[in-house]
Design goal:
This protein has two helices and 32 strands. The chain has a 32-stranded mixed beta sheet that branches. The longest helix is centred in the first third of the chain and has 29 residues. The protein has three domains: about 30 residues; about 90 residues, Pectate Lyase C-like (3 Solenoid); about 240 residues, no CATH class. It is elongated, with a radius of gyration of 31 Å.
């Protein structure tokens, strides 16, 4: 009987091993990778449109486009199309019955290629140098690229955006994440509904907005429009018209050559200004200090007002004041109106500069370079 039991146990183990191996083989076959490679020439196009999954693109020196797809069930393979038409390679995956798998698209393409990439629910990651136009859109993931020698357009409904140095015009947006861009050679536009924006130098105009974060920008060789509903704004340099507004933070605007509009509802304002003589400048705060550093050789007329009404003005006139390196043409404290007012005419007057704050100090200093 003992021998019979040993035989029975051995047979049972063999059957169990057989069924385990069969199940494993079926699962690996179902989710196995598919790879296609196409011969192309420089200056072509890569077009990717998928209903879900992460997309990873790397550039290489070969005149080939290689597409490797993983994580798609055999039942959905009939909806996967990888094809070439002339010098364009297309990857299309839109299952008729929807898609809930874990697809991944790994693609290699030449550097001298345009990329137009769309996914309804995944990350987009483009690595290496791209010498062409890049467009990336996802409804739910992060988007990142390396350096791009061309135009860039990136959009996500729920993730971060990170971009290297771009030589052309750039536009990026996200409905809920941070934006970080190393450098842009031409004009730049960026918006996020809930994150910080960090930007290096911009070779043209910069238009930047966030509904809830800080904005940090390098040198802008054009006009700068900066908006945040709840954070700080810092600009390193600009040579045009600067408009910076925040509902709840500080403004630091350095080395502005031109005109500036800086407004905050609850913070301090600091600006370094060399007026161009072509526009009006205004710095204002509803509850903070204002510091203006201005070129002493500038032709400008500065009017500074501290409003004290509603802030215990009978002793606030001792707490707040206007401090200036320049002699005042007019200066008075009006307890009836609750204001402290000063007027300063630099080098015979010129561009009008208005400084306004409530319950804060105003400083007007010589700009040292």
């Amino acid at each position: 009987m003992k021998n019979h039991n040993k035989i029975f146990i051995s047979i049972a183990l063999l059957f169990a091993a057989f069924f385990y191996c069969t199940a494993f083989a079926d699962s690996t076959t179902t989710m196995s990778a598919r790879t296609k490679t196409f011969t192309v020439s420089k200056g072509g196009n890569l077009e990717v449109a998928v209903s879900g999954g992460d997309i990873s693109i790397n550039t290489w020196d070969k005149n080939e486009v290689s597409v490797r797809v993983e994580g798609i069930d055999d039942d959905d393979l009939e909806d996967l199309e990888i094809s070439q038409s002339d010098n364009t390679v297309r990857v299309d995956f839109r299952p008729h019955w929807g898609f809930s798998g874990d697809a991944r698209f790994d693609i290699r393409m030449p550097q001298e290629f345009d990329a137009d990439v769309h996914t309804s629910g995944g990350n987009i990651d483009i690595r290496g140098v791209v010498k062409g136009r890049v467009k990336g859109v996802t409804s739910g993931g992060d988007v990142s690229t390396g350096d791009v020698e061309g135009m860039v357009t990136l959009r996500t409904s729920g993730g971060d955006v990170q971009v290297g140095a771009v030589s052309g015009e750039t536009e990026v947006s996200t409905s809920g994440g941070n934006i970080r861009v190393k450098k842009v050679g031409k004009s730049f536009k960026a918006s996020t509904a809930g994150g910080d924006i960090e930007l290096g130098d911009v070779g043209g105009d910069a238009t930047v907005s966030t509904a809830g974060g800080d904005i940090t920008v390098g040198k802008v060789s054009g006009n700068a429009t900066l908006r945040t509903a709840g954070g700080n704004i810092e600009l390193q340099s600009a040579s045009g018209t600067v408009s910076a507004k925040t509902s709840g933070g500080d403004l630091k605007l350095h080395n502005v050559t031109g005109s500036v509009e800086g407004k905050t509802s609850g913070g301090n304002v600091t600006a370094e200004l060399t007026p161009s003589g072509k526009g009006h400048s205004e710095l204002s705060s509803s509850g903070g200090d204002i510091s203006l550093y201005i070129d002493e050789n500038a032709h400008a007329t500065i009017e500074a007002t501290i409003r004290l009404r509603g802030s215990s003005w009978w002793h606030s006139d001792e707490k707040y004041d206007i401090h200036s390196d320049f002699k005042a043409a007019e200066y008075h404290k009006d307890k009836d109106d609750g204001d402290i007012y000063g007027k300063y005419i630099l080098n015979g007057g010129g561009e009008n500069i208005t400084l306004k704050t409530s319950a804060g100090n105003i400083e007007i200093r010589k700009l040292t370079k």
